[in-house]
Write a structure and sequence with these properties.
It is a single chain. This protein is of the alpha/beta class. It has 4 domains: 160 residues, 3-Layer(aba) Sandwich (Molybdenum Cofactor Biosythetic Enzyme, Chain A), CATH 3.40.980.10; 53 residues, Molybdopterin biosynthesis moea protein, domain 2 (Alpha-Beta Complex); 84 residues, Molybdopterin biosynthesis moeA protein, domain 3 (Beta Complex), CATH 2.170.190; 72 residues, Beta-clip (Beta Barrel), CATH 2.40.340. It is 19% helix and 30% strand. The protein contains 7 helices and 26 strands. The chain has a 6-stranded mixed β-sheet, with no helix packed on it. Strands 16-13-17-21-20-18 form a 6-stranded mixed β-sheet, sandwiched between helices. Helix 4 packs across helix 5. It is elongated and about 90 Å long. The relative contact order is 0.13.
Length: 402
Amino acid sequence: MIPVAEALERLLAGVERLDEETVALHAAGNRVLAAPIVAGRTHPPFDASAMDGYAVRADDVANVPARLTVIGESAAGRRFSGFVEPGEAVRIFTGAPVPDGADTILIQENADRDGAAVIATETVSVGRHIRRAGLDFHAGDVLLEAGRRIDPQALALIAAADVPAVRVVRRPRVAIIATGDELVLPGEPRTDDQIIASNSFGVGQIIRDAGAEAIDLGIVADDEAAIGAALDRAVEVGCDVIVTLGGASVGDHDLTATVFETKGVELAFWKIAMRPGKPLMAGRLGAASVLGLPGNPVSAMVCADLFLRPLLAALQGQPASEHLPRAVLDGSLGENDRRQDYVRAVARLDGDGDLIVTPLTLQDSSMLRMLAQANCLIVRPPFAPALGRGDACRVLMLRTIG
């Protein structure tokens, strides 16, 4: 068995970023930028009012009350085209262009309307409540660098910059092959000896969350020819990664390793000093990376988080390393053995903003309910000493707190 760090290093050795492609902005969410985003337009494109009120000249309201003649209206998308002379005002709304001649905004709470006139009841300084043109950015500014994943905030920024299409890294294509005579899909007829196939659903979502395309090739029987045919199919459809689920151990019905050898998979490793997930295989089949995940549900999900996510990040040109924040243990953990342990736990923030983690009582690798309750994994190195309440530890976050 090899250490987790060495296994990850072997998995990622020689992995290169995939090719680029151009996609329309509406299809760019969760993709990774292959080129910087340069603003195509200044934003805001004009001096705009930040409040509802009246566009006025500050000198005209230096002494209050001051009576001004309202000569028109400026609304968002429909500016007032005239000029504000001394003693005049323009009714204006949030987001509307500030008319020429006006240099400040008298908010409506500080104004009384009297027919065709408005009476200012408070003074206002020059530039008050005006968002200047280019306050956010100017045309030609580099707004986002290559390598940024396009999250909702980035997507909104790109749209505001008047960029209708973007250069992104091609989405990795990932084949999922679930193996096992005992598996049936949810809702399908089954015998008392069969179980519901869950791994392909969880791993598939991990793939999609990582910005890749999941191609589910279905459930394959415990048959060398059938498993081999599924691998062939994954290669034929041009998958960048092939993930098998189950059959990675050494039992009489665990055939994945045998098929890998028959098909010429160049193994980088088989079996890792970790818990859960020891029977994990990885290698290459032609141009495709291959991951043979364990069949136990928790093992499959943990291994996908630890190895599949970094692989998909590397294929998209992103850092593959995972930050492990420091946390304070609320509970106790015994001395660890030679395998790196990933303990399912629940993290929370205390009143001081410190991360507090409580290990779950049951850690069996078949218990998905415990995994769904956990929002992090406590990472315990090999031969780590026993820990008690208040001791420091490192965690791998599975989802955000809240």
